[in-house]
């Protein structure tokens, strides 16, 4: 009996001990994670700090952490140095057109693949899956030649049309969602005399709204950040998108780090705003789909 | 009526994406194959030259340089990047405030290659960059990261690891969420330690996720271009010249489109092999789990 009590108290003590240990390791883990978070965000903080310095402050050793005086004028200077406003406009409208058309064309194809029993559907769907394996670097030369043939080089059509009409991944992902819609919903609509178009528009689209939101965000990020395509297709600075403009900005202002940092901040702000407002959706979207923005 | 003419309606609904697929993916892929067997140089006539482009590609020191640089980069990014993100996701998995930490770690993923490239050009600047200044505080004389042939690939790898960490973390976290709690409870009853649980439950059940992340990272490593293009233009002395850089340079600087296409097809085959491995293993895991 006594032994038993001893054993019990020993377990209680042991539990208290492990609990303490657990708390301690939790605190340690938090410290590590806070340090890690800081390292992850530091490059952005340093960019902002650097963007507010003048040339004298930026080349100081040891580094001056807080800019003094604060050079807000760097932002005005970099906005004036290059047509950033125009690049913003270009990137913005190209992205909006691509996102909206992708939502429509991809959901149409997804609906057909999931719900319409048409000839060749399986073969064509496999074709869509297979093209997801083709890296864009492999088709970049022929695509350039196709754009040349179409007369689309140095025009925004070279960016907008492929973006709007081809997104195998969106088709694939949306199809999964459409497949999950129960047949009864469609059948009820058919009883009411609805055709394909009405079923697609009134039943399918509203039900896959969450998936459409995820596709919209990813397409936005992909299109806004796209570098290789505009690099190859566009020549005229007035037609540049933000990443390409920033790249040529870099070429022109080498060593003027404050101005370059200000330009970088200007170009990163839209994505960071979108990110801050939709981070939950973006992160969960990646978790579900495994795609990169 | 609804069930009328499913063939017509099916095609109508897929036609925009189907046209896009044909013009912007399938035709270009076939075109790339065809070009790789010709001597075409951007204008004028093109001649069928058989395997000449492939042969000369394999005899081209630049091609091998690019290949070796790319593989070296991959061997840095894949193990280090995956190890850090695995540790991170395990640390985050059951901790309070996970959602807040996630926001910070994921932030770089959404920013463009050009902006992160420029940010790292400044951070890694040999003379005035903050990294070397911080290193000097602890008595380390940092290298000229981006202008030293020995350090340029590790520098780009460092950027890529930072850039992609949040993405891998999210995938790993999803994988960890998928492991049933009952295994851990059963192990606790049997008196398993935390490390034993990690070693015998978490790691094996996370294998599919780890393989997925590994293959995806290998594939994206073979496609590395933007970072090198923005930060170093492939230099110094072609030390950061990657395989996509080689394709780009042969096509849009030298205008040897045929040559360049053969390199593109070689890249395609490499990536295809890794993609197929991924598909094969995925099937196996689904089978094993059932």
TrEMBL record, chain A:
The keyword Ion transport does not apply. One of its GO terms (cellular component) is plasma membrane. Residues 88-278 form the ABC transmembrane type-1 domain. It is found in: Cell membrane. CDD domains: TM_PBP2. It is a multi-pass membrane protein. Pfam families: BPD_transp_1. Keywords: Cell membrane, Membrane, Transmembrane, Transmembrane helix, Transport. Coiled coil: none annotated. It comes from the Bacteria. Its main location: membrane. The chain crosses the membrane at residues 27-49, 92-114, 121-145, 157-178, 199-221, 257-277. The keyword Ligase does not apply. Belongs to the binding-protein-dependent transport system permease family. This is Carbohydrate ABC transporter permease. It comes from Gracilibacillus oryzae.
TrEMBL record, chain B:
Coiled coil: none annotated. It is found in: Cell membrane. The chain crosses the membrane at residues 12-33, 71-92, 104-124, 151-174, 205-225, 262-281. InterPro entries: ABC_transporter_permease (IPR051393), MetI-like (IPR000515), MetI-like_sf (IPR035906). Residues 67-278 form the ABC transmembrane type-1 domain. One of its GO terms (biological process) is transmembrane transport. One of its GO terms (cellular component) is plasma membrane. Pfam families: BPD_transp_1. The keyword tRNA-binding does not apply. It comes from the Bacteria. Its main location: membrane. SUPFAM superfamilies: MetI-like. Keywords: Cell membrane, Membrane, Transmembrane, Transmembrane helix, Transport. It is a multi-pass membrane protein. Belongs to the binding-protein-dependent transport system permease family. This is Sugar ABC transporter permease. It comes from Gracilibacillus oryzae.
